[in-house]
Design brief:
alpha/beta; four-stranded mixed beta sheet; 6 strands
Length: 289
């Protein structure tokens, strides 16, 4: 980021506010980038910046992640943590993206697969992912490990061993990640279909209700035009006639809208493509080892 000039304005949002008439170069030199926090500390202070999802730095990082993502060969590094457990574990995080017409992103979700890690030299077969109960425990261990400020890292030899095993581990876990993603995709596609049907039905009811009200209003004025405009001057009568003509035109458009718009809403939620990609690899090393 420091060598990319396009980040300058984004990183400026992490500085203290610029003073009036202060030169930009002076401000950047005198106002260093402040530390960030990810949760509300409950205290208003200018010493830190709350990095919530709408903050510009967070938005730019997320945009880059969502636009590019990762592919298998991009995962050349892994996250390593220690857990209060006796079993080495590995977690492959994947991202499932479902797209509609014109590549509209309809759904995106991170999914994990977890497994007991075994040194490749001692494996009798491929890594097998945990069932739900063991997976839940693994993710709980990960969360507790990440929240522990006093955790220790394993030695360099273990770190190197895990890093060397990472490409092979991804290769073994990726098909199982894809299988789980396909199962998830079936559920999500069904939910999107139901949402499309519900919004199609709601829009149709709205349009039919509007058509009914416009028709009733037009019918009333056509039937009682003279009575309703008895005390009106010519300008006011012409205005009412213009309203009536607008209602007639709108009634002609309702049939087209009812034929096209509800169907367009339903088709918007139809999944046209699904993509699964690995986005992270985590090793949980036992504290006892």
């Amino acid at each position: 980021m420091e060598t990319d000039p396009s980040w300058a304005a984004t990183l400026d949002t992490l500085r203290a506010p610029r003073k009036q008439n202060q030169k930009l170069a002076d401000w950047r030199r005198e106002a260093p980038i402040r530390p960030v926090v990810f949760e509300d500390t409950g205290v208003l202070t200018e010493d830190t910046v709350h990095l919530h999802l709408e903050q510009r730095v967070a938005q730019r990082l997320l945009a880059r992640f969502r636009a590019q993502g990762f592919i298998h060969h991009d995962l050349s590094r892994a996250c390593l943590a220690q857990a209060a457990d006796s079993i080495p574990r590995v977690i492959l995080l994947g991202r499932v993206s479902l797209y509609g017409q014109r590549a509209e992103r309809l759904h995106e979700e991170l999914i994990p697969v977890t497994a007991r890690w075994v040194d490749p030299s001692r494996r009798k077969g491929k890594l097998q992912i945990y069932a739900r109960e063991a997976e839940t425990k693994t993710l709980d261990l990960l969360e507790r490990s990440l929240g522990d400020s006093n955790h220790h890292m394993p030695g360099d030899s273990i770190q190197q061993k895990l890093l060397n095993a990472a490409p092979h581990d991804i290769e073994e876990l990726l098909p199982q990640l894809q299988s789980r993603a396909e199962d998830l995709g079936v559920l999500v596609i069904e939910k999107l279909k139901k949402r499309g049907e519900r919004e199609e039905r709601d829009l149709r009811e709205i349009l039919e209700g509007q058509r009914k009200r416009v028709r009733e209003e037009l019918t009333k004025y056509e039937a009682k035009f003279k009575q309703l405009t008895f005390d009106f001057d010519e300008h006011e009568k012409r205005q009412i006639e213009a309203y009536m003509q607008a209602w007639r035109n709108r009634l002609g458009l309702f049939d087209r809208d009812l034929e096209q718009e509800p169907q367009r809403i339903r088709e918007f939620y139809e999944v046209r493509a699904q993509r699964v990609e690995p986005v992270g690899l985590v090793y949980l090393w036992p504290e006892t080892n």
